[in-house]
Design brief:
binds nicotinamide-adenine-dinucleotide; OB fold (Dihydrolipoamide Acetyltransferase, E2P); about 35% helix; 24 strands; D-amino Acid Aminotransferase, Chain A, domain 1; Helix Hairpins; metal ion binding; binds zinc ion; alpha+beta
Length: about 650
C-alpha cells in the first residue's frame, strides 16, 4: 500500500470505529488499539504533511449531534486531549513544553481522568444558565434540563465572578449508581449498560429530564474556559477557587514540580484508582500557569499544554501458533488467532479475535509472531500489537481465504468493503450462528438448546430457520445423540417458555445487522408493535433519536426480504408472542412474578401485594420455576427452602424498594 492509501485507510478505520463507539455504543476494538491506529495516522501525517486532509480525525474533534436537542455554540472551543500509554512519551511532551516556553520555570497539575463525558456549564452573575455537551468542539447539544437534575451541580455559586463565566467538567456515573441502574434494568428485562461511561452518556441524552434524575449522575469540575478573566494565576489555584464557589472538584488533584514527579504520582494511581467509587481511565497532566498555557496554545484538536496518560487494560505477550477462520451468523469470516496460552485478567486466554482481514493486514500479524494481547472491558480478547523485533525469519503473511472454510463456496468483500463473507446464503455455518444467537441469553433465552444440539438439528434437516424450532417434536429430539426423554422434555419446556418475550428481545434475536439490544429497545419503544417495525420506512426509523441511517437501512433490508418475513410470520403463527412493556420506565417489575413469605416489617401482606402490582409485577401463592423473586421476611420456612433449591432470587423488603425506586 502506498502512503496516501495508507493514510486514507487509517482515516476510514478511525471513522468507522468512531461510529461503532459513539453512535452504536458497541466498540469492536479496545481503546488501546483505537489509540494505536490514531497514533499511526498522526505519525504518518507528521512525516508527510501533504497527506493531511482538513477532515482528518487528527485535525478536529468529531461527535455526531443527537436528535431532540438544540445545538448551541461554545464560547471557547471544547477540545480533546492527546494521549499516551507510555511514560517515555510524557517526557517527550515535557521537552516540547520546555521548548515551547523557552524556560524550565513551570510546574504541572495532575488530575484523575474521569471516564464520563465532558460538559460545559455557563453561569451568569453566579446563576446557572446553560449546559452543553462537547459535540464537534464548536457546537454541542443543549442538555440544560437534564444537567439540572444532577444534584451536585450548584444552580447558584458562592461569591461568584461577575458577568458570564464558563466551567468545564465531567458528568459520570459512580460504580454504585451503575450497579443499581443495571439491577433495575435487569428487573425490567432491559438491556444492561456495558459500562459507566456508556450509562452516563446514554442517560444524559434521554429526552425526559424526570428519567435522567433517576439515574444518579454525578459531576466533577476540572477547569474553566477563558481563564484570563479569573483571579487565579494557574490551574491548581483555580481548582481551589472553583471549590470555594461551591462546584464539586475532585479532591485528588495534585501539584508536581516536574515531569518525574508527575510520573511518580501516575504510578501511584495505577493501583490506587481501583479503590475509587467512580470510573477513571487515566490521568490528565496540565501545565499549571495560565500564562504558559496561553503561550503554548492549541492545535485544531487539542491543547499543547495538556496530555492524558491512559492506564491500559492488562496486556500479555504471547505467540500466534495458528490462525483459524470462523464463519459467523451473517456469513462474515473472522480470523481468530490461536495463541500459546497466557493468563490474562484472571483467565487463561488461548484465542484472540483479529476482527477482519484488513485488520490482519494492518497489524501485519503472521503465524509465529510474538504479539501483545489484551482483554479490555466487555470486549473479547484481542491482538493489539505485533512485536516486529521478535518475528522469525521465515514467517509468511496470512492471506484472506478465497473459499469458505465451512461450505467451500467463494468468498467476497461485503458491500462496505470491510468484511470478507461467504457468498452462500445457505451456508450451514450461517444458519448455526444465527440459531445459536437466536436462542442465546438476552435474546430468546432457550438455555437448554446448546450449540451441539443445534448442529445436529441442522445436520438432520430438522431445522432450517427460526420458526422450525417451534415445530420440533419430542421424537425429533430423542432421535439425536445424547438426548434422553428428560432432556427432550426440558428443551421443549424452555422453547414453550420463550414464546412469551419482550418485543425488543425478539427483534434483537433476529440478528439484524447493527441492531443490538439498545437499538432493538428503541425500535420496540417507538413503534410499539412488531408489525409497525416490519412496515416502517427507513425515514420513519431515521427520524428517531439514536437510530442512524446505517441501522435504519439494515432493518429495512431485513424485512424487505420475503423469506425473512415468512419466518417471522411463521414464528407468530407457532405461538411466539412478543409483547411491549407498558412504559417500562414507570413499571420496574413488569413481567415479574413474586411470591411473598415470612413476616414483613415494612408492609402488611395486602400492602405489599398492592405495591408489587402497582409497579407492574404479579404475586402468586406458590413457588415454582416460573417465580422470579421470593420476597422473604423473618421466619421464612418451606417456601424459602424451595426457592433456594430452584435458584429463585431471594430479596428482602429493602431490596424490593430499591428495585422500584
Ligand atoms: N474503542 C474504540 O473503538 C473507540 C472509538 C472512538 C473513541 N474511543 C476512545 O475515546 C477516546 C477519544 O475520546 P475523547 O476525544 O473524548 O478523548 P478522551 O476521552 O480520551 O480525553 C478527553 C476527555 O477527557 C475528559 N476528562 C476527564 N477528566 C478530565 C480532567 N481531569 N481534565 C480534563 N479532561 C478530563 C474530558 O471529557 C475530555 O473531553 C479515544 O482515545 C479512545 O480511547 C475508542
Ligand atoms: Zn460457507
Amino acid at each position: 500500500m502506498d502512503l496516501k492509501s495508507k493514510a486514507k485507510d487509517l482515516r476510514e478505520q478511525i471513522r468507522r470505529h468512531d461510529y461503532l463507539y459513539y453512535v452504536l455504543n458497541s466498540p469492536e476494538i479496545s481503546d488501546f488499539r483505537y489509540d494505536e491506529l490514531f497514533r499511526q495516522l498522526r505519525e504518518l501525517e507528521a512525516d508527510h504533511p501533504e497527506l493531511i486532509t482538513p477532515d482528518s480525525p487528527t485535525q478536529r474533534v468529531s461527535e455526531a449531534p443527537s436528535e431532540g436537542f438544540e445545538r448551541v455554540s461554545h464560547l471557547v472551543p471544547m477540545l480533546s486531549i492527546d494521549n499516551t500509554y507510555e511514560s517515555a512519551e510524557l517526557r517527550a511532551f515535557d521537552s516540547r513544553v520546555r521548548k515551547g516556553l523557552g524556560s524550565n520555570d513551570y510546574s504541572y497539575t495532575v488530575e484523575l481522568k474521569i471516564d464520563g463525558l465532558a460538559i460545559s456549564l455557563i453561569y451568569e452573575n453566579g446563576i446557572f444558565q446553560r449546559a452543553a455537551t462537547r459535540g464537534d468542539g464548536e457546537q454541542g447539544d443543549d442538555v440544560t434540563a437534564n444537567v439540572k437534575t444532577i444534584r451536585s451541580i450548584p444552580l447558584k455559586l458562592n461569591n461568584p465572578a461577575a458577568g458570564r463565566f464558563e466551567v468545564r467538567g465531567e458528568v459520570f456515573m459512580s460504580f454504585s449508581a451503575f450497579e443499581k441502574t443495571n439491577k433495575l434494568r435487569d428487573a425490567q428485562d432491559r438491556q444492561r449498560f456495558a459500562n459507566p461511561r456508556n450509562a452516563a452518556a446514554g442517560s444524559l441524552k434521554l429526552l425526559d429530564a424526570k428519567e435522567v434524575s433517576k439515574r444518579e449522575l454525578s459531576f466533577f469540575c476540572y477547569g474553566l474556559a477563558g481563564a484570563e478573566n479569573f483571579s487565579a494565576k494557574g490551574h491548581f489555584a483555580a481548582l481551589n477557587r472553583l471549590k470555594e464557589m461551591g462546584l464539586p472538584v475532585n479532591p485528588e488533584a495534585a501539584e508536581a514540580e516536574n515531569i518525574e514527579q508527575v510520573i511518580e504520582i501516575i504510578q501511584l494511581w495505577d493501583e490506587k484508582r481501583k479503590t475509587l467509587n467512580y470510573p477513571t481511565d487515566g490521568m490528565v497532566i496540565k501545565v499549571d500557569s495560565f500564562e504558559a498555557q496561553k503561550k503554548l496554545g492549541a492545535t485544531g484538536r487539542s491543547p499543547r499544554w495538556c496530555m492524558a496518560y491512559k492506564f491500559s487494560a492488562e496486556q500479555k505477550q504471547t505467540k500466534i501458533s495458528s490462525v483459524d477462520v470462523q464463519v459467523g451468523k451473517t456469513g462474515i469470516l473472522t480470523p481468530v488467532a490461536n495463541l500459546e496460552p497466557v493468563e490474562l485478567a484472571g483467565t487463561t486466554v488461548r484465542r484472540a479475535s483479529m476482527h477482519n482481514f484488513d485488520e490482519v493486514e494492518r497489524l501485519d500479524a503472521r503465524v509465529g509472531d510474538t504479539v501483545l494481547v489484551e482483554k479490555a472491558g466487555e470486549i473479547i480478547p484481542q491482538v493489539v500489537k505485533v512485536l516486529r523485533d521478535h518475528r522469525p525469519e521465515t514467517s509468511e503473511r496470512f492471506l484472506p481465504p478465497k473459499e469458505c472454510p465451512v461450505c467451500g463456496s467463494q468468498t467476497a468483500k461485503d458491500k462496505n468493503g470491510v468484511y470478507l463473507v461467504c457468498t452462500n446464503p445457505n451456508c450451514p455455518a450461517r444458519l448455526k450462528g444465527r440459531l445459536v444467537y437466536f436462542v442465546g441469553k438476552g435474546q430468546m433465552d432457550i438455555d437448554t438448546l446448546g450449540p451441539a444440539v443445534i448442529e445436529q438439528l441442522i445436520e438432520k434437516g430438522l431445522v432450517k430457520n427460526f420458526s422450525d424450532l417451534y415445530g420440533i417434536s419430542r421424537e425429533d429430539l430423542t432421535s439425536l445423540d445424547k438426548i434422553g426423554d428428560k432432556s427432550a422434555e426440558n428443551i421443549l419446556a424452555s422453547i414453550e417458555k420463550s414464546k412469551e418475550t419482550p418485543l425488543w428481545r425478539f427483534v434483537k434475536a433476529l440478528g439484524i445487522r447493527y441492531i443490538g439490544g439498545q437499538n432493538a429497545e428503541i425500535l420496540a419503544e417507538r413503534f410499539g408493535s412488531l408489525e409497525a417495525i416490519m412496515n416502517a420506512s427507513a425515514e420513519d426509523m431515521e427520524a428517531i433519536d439514536q437510530i442512524g441511517p446505517v441501522a435504519a437501512a439494515s432493518v429495512k433490508e431485513y424485512f424487505a426480504d420475503a423469506e425473512n418475513r415468512e419466518t417471522v410470520n411463521n414464528l407468530l403463527a407457532r405461538g411466539v408472542r412478543p409483547y411491549v412493556q407498558q412504559s417500562g420506565e414507570e413499571k420496574p417489575l413488569a413481567g415479574k412474578t413474586f411470591v411473598v413469605t415470612g413476616t414483613l416489617s415494612q408492609f402488611t401482606r395486602d400492602q405489599v401485594k398492592e405495591f408489587i402490582s402497582q409497579n407492574g409485577g404479579k404475586v402468586s401463592s406458590s413457588v415454582s420455576s416460573k417465580t422470579d423473586y421470593l420476597l422473604a421476611g423473618e421466619k421464612a420456612g418451606s417456601k424459602l427452602k424451595k426457592a433456594s433449591s430452584l435458584g429463585v432470587e431471594i430479596i428482602n423488603e429493602q431490596e424490593l424498594k430499591e428495585i422500584c425506586s
